[in-house]
Amino acid sequence: MLFAAVLAGRWVRHALLVDADGAWREPGFLDGLLPALVVEEVAPEPPAPPFHVNRTTVDTLTCLPGVGAVLAGRIVAERARGGPFRNAADLRRVKGIGPKLSERLGPLLLYDTGPGAARSEASSFDPPGR
After folding, report:
1. C-beta neighbour count of 76 within 10 angstroms
2. Which of 43, 97, 104, 112 is the most exposed place for a label (fewest CB within 10 A)?
3. Pick from 116, 111, 49, 61: which is nearest to 86 by CA?
4. If DSSP codes are grouped into helix, strand and coil, which group holds residue 52?
């Protein structure tokens, strides 16, 4: 039985690697038989600060240092309840943001201070400069 398996293996190897003329096949002839290479998709880079604090989403706010999902949710909830944030000191209205964190987040956030500042219900990320 073992002899038959070895003989069958030699026959299969010969059938695959040697062409009808007895010459060795090209090394890449099996490439067509193999499945295509699957390329894994790389997750996109998270958006980079500064963010418009009065228009950005919870997910985007979590990209800020010291801001997790819970605190980002509180920022959005306070924005909806109390109106737009006008400066870094306004962030202290949010439970969990004290003077140190608001000072650290200040340069990473953009604030609406003009006449359209009441537009706090928009929830899409708006990159700076647009």
Report:
1. 19
2. 43
3. 111
4. strand
Amino acid at 86: R
Helix, strand, coil percentages for the chain (3-state, nearest 5): 45, 5, 50
Query: Among 38, 59, 61, 39, which Cα is nearest to 50's?
Result: 61
* Cβ-count burial 11-38 (b if 16+ within 10 Å, e if not): eeeeeeeeeeeeeeeeeeeeeeeeeeee
Query: Which amino acid is residue 129, in one-letter code?
Result: G
**Domains of the chain from N-terminus onward:** 2-32 (no CATH), 51-117 (1.10.150.320)
Residue 66, phi-psi category: left (phi > 0), alpha (psi -120 to 50), beta (remainder): left
Residue 55 DSSP code: T
In order along its 130 residues, the chain shows pLDDT tens digits of: 888 877 777 777 777 777 777 776 666 656 666 676 777 777 777 777 788 999 999 999 999 999 999 999 999 999 999 999 998 889 999 999 999 998 998 889 998 765 554 443 333 344 444 4
